[in-house]
Write a structure and sequence with these properties.
Blueprint: E1 20-25, H1 29-45, E2 53-58, H2 64-74, E3 79-87, H3 93-112, E4 116-123, H4 126-131, E5 133-135, E6 138-139, H5 140-159
Length: 160
């Protein structure tokens, strides 16, 4: 099926002097450190200058929305890559962390009209988390970083 539209707006996967924050939890650092590496690698390969990247660490995924709000209010960055790993385990802890974390980040993105790449893994097992942090399922930190790059571009085009 083919459609005829007047105009299509898409973002580019090229960083043009954007300042990007990488907000990462320390909990499950064996996974999160790999997500950070993947995000930085993707950003640099797409034109980011390392001097325009900043890594901010917080205790866990539950603390990501509060730190993200402070970063949004600072207006120092064009976008944010949120990185963390919440693994289900044997307790209800997963249910109390994963939802509030992702919902809080989504609400901030809308409230501030600020691109936030969601690189917070929510997995059943540590093996699944490692697979998504540079293993056989790729690196979701890199994917989240590229989403931010594209959304910075899309939002700029929508404002122009």
């Amino acid at each position: 099926m083919s459609f005829k539209v007047n105009k299509t707006i898409e973002g580019e996967l090229v960083v043009r002097d954007a300042k990007i924050a990488l907000l990462a939890s320390r909990f499950n650092s064996i996974v999160v450190d790999r997500l950070i590496e993947g995000a930085i690698d993707a950003l640099v390969r797409h034109g980011a200058q390392e001097r325009h990247l900043e890594v901010i660490r917080v205790p866990g995924a539950f603390e990501l929305p509060l730190a993200a709000k402070a970063l949004a209010e600072s207006k120092r960055f064009h976008g944010l890559v949120a990185l963390g790993a919440v693994v289900r385990g044997d307790t209800a802890h997963f249910d109390y962390v994963a939802g509030p974390c992702t919902n809080g980040l989504a609400a901030l993105s809308l409230e501030y009209q600020w691109p936030i790449g969601l690189g917070v893994l929510t997995t059943e097992t540590m093996e699944q988390a490692l697979d998504r942090a540079g293993g056989k399922a790729g690196n979701k930190g890199a994917d989240a970083a590229l989403s931010v790059v594209e959304m910075i571009s899309v939002l700029k085009r929508l404002k122009d």
